[in-house]
Amino acid sequence: MKIGVLALQGDFIEHVQVLRALGADAVEVRQPDELRDLDGLIIPGGESTTFGKLAIEYGLIEPIRALCNAGKPVWGTCAGMIFLAKDIGRPQPLLGLMDVKVKRNAFGRQVDSFEIDLDVSALATTENGQPKPFHAIFIRAPLIESIGKAVEVLAQLDDGTIVAARQGNLLATSFHPELTQDTRFHRYFLERVGKR
Questions:
Q1: 166: pLDDT strictly greater than 60
Q2: What average pLDDT does range 56-74 have in this prediction?
């Protein structure tokens, strides 16, 4: 199983390390030809406007869209979620594939970053017979303001704010699973790759 991690900017190396620890063949992607034989792709956190500009400069927008449209699993974390979205309420380069409206920097500045335990039924594991929450790290994180009919909500904050969702082969999280010791989100993504 060969998984690419978009390595233009951001925390791509952390995703690569988690994937390799789970036994996946993880490769850094910077050029269109490096997308050719992938089974899946992760678009990591970073700065979404920089992602867009670099993706245009390196000719990656259309090849990544083609990969998504071919049904290959693609997961965007934080800025990666913004990059996947159809609507972010402002002009900037996007893939525009996931039927979600995303609000950038929704929780405030860097100093407003936070951690919280989330219930994620898709990651169902038990600890002493009880559901085990996923400890999520939010860093200048976006949120999903609204979703289309084909989008499934995977996780919400207590106030109903959507922070993880899936649409077909596309997965998006507001937070950074790669910064935790909990590999369940990466395993969930790899399972989806394996089922394809």
A1: yes
A2: 95
Rounded CA-CA distance 10/8 in Å is 7
Total-model pTM: 0.93
Whether 47 is catalytic: no
Which DSSP letter does residue 52 get? H
Whether 78 is catalytic? yes
Q: Which residue has the tokens 């090849």?
A: 63
Find the catalytic residue in 68, 78, 127, 145: 78
CATH assignment of 2-195? 3.40.50.880
Catalytic residue at 178? yes
Query: Distance between CA 77 and CA 164 in Å, rounded?
Result: 9
- How far is the C-alpha of 28 from the C-alpha of 5, rounded, in Å? 5
Q: pLDDT tens digits, residue range 76-133?
A: 999 999 999 998 888 888 899 999 999 876 666 665 678 999 999 888 676 676 778 9
Q: List the domain boundaries for the chain.
A: 2-195
Catalytic option among 14, 15, 68, 176:
176
DSSP 68: H
